[in-house]
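Meet my pick.
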Amino acid sequence: MNFLKGETLYIDKPLGWTSFDAVKRLRSTMLRRLGLKKMKVGHAGTLDPLASGVMIIVTGKSTKLIEQLQAGVKEYVATLTLGATTPSFDLETEIDATFPTDHITLELVKQVLPQFIGRIEQVPPSFSACKVDGKRAYKMARSGQQVELKPKILVIDEIELLNFSPTEITLRIVCSKGTYIRALARDIGQALNSGAHLSALRRTRVGDTSIDQCLSIDQAVDLIRSCPIEMPDEDDAPSTNPSGHSNKADKLIHSSSAERN
């Protein structure tokens, strides 16, 4: 493997880890293996600490292809708790309001969900990395400031209802880059004439890569420590083709070109 020339690692980010935690762990392992003090390592799409699942980590010159990789369609499995809202639309903050759920039926949920399929407008959460007058919205929100964000256009290809109860639903969601699943939870709660917040989230696919093709952090660390290493020449260029793999190992880590939700 040639980490400086460019490699792509597909990992299953653990619950409770930040995206930076995952990058830091793998980068420090690479640096020790290569005997270097620094190198480029990045990720193609942020996952919240409260979310787990597919995360793409790129190294060396492959970091130039982050934008290309993070543009892939995303798939999530999301659990929405109905009848209560939080300021962050997830479990980062405490419940701030409760609403009735007795009227929520399976039929009502099935009627509401199609409203969110296709090209829609979505107002991002105040607790997000969006900028307002040069400041991060989440920093303003956490300090108690009012945050007003403009709606963004995005595409939701599929919403499948996996489980239902009057107080909790689980959805499979296929969507474009830039979709805030937390904001979708908020909007679905409002459409149900109640409230909702995101109580669990797992990213199960990015582009053509699904969760069963990903390595755990420990597996990725073991592979970095044990794989054959090639040190590149100064002017070596990275491969620009992120596909062409024929087995799981090549899919998980291969030379390649390489959002709080």
User: Anything to note?
Assistant: The chain has seven helices and 14 strands.
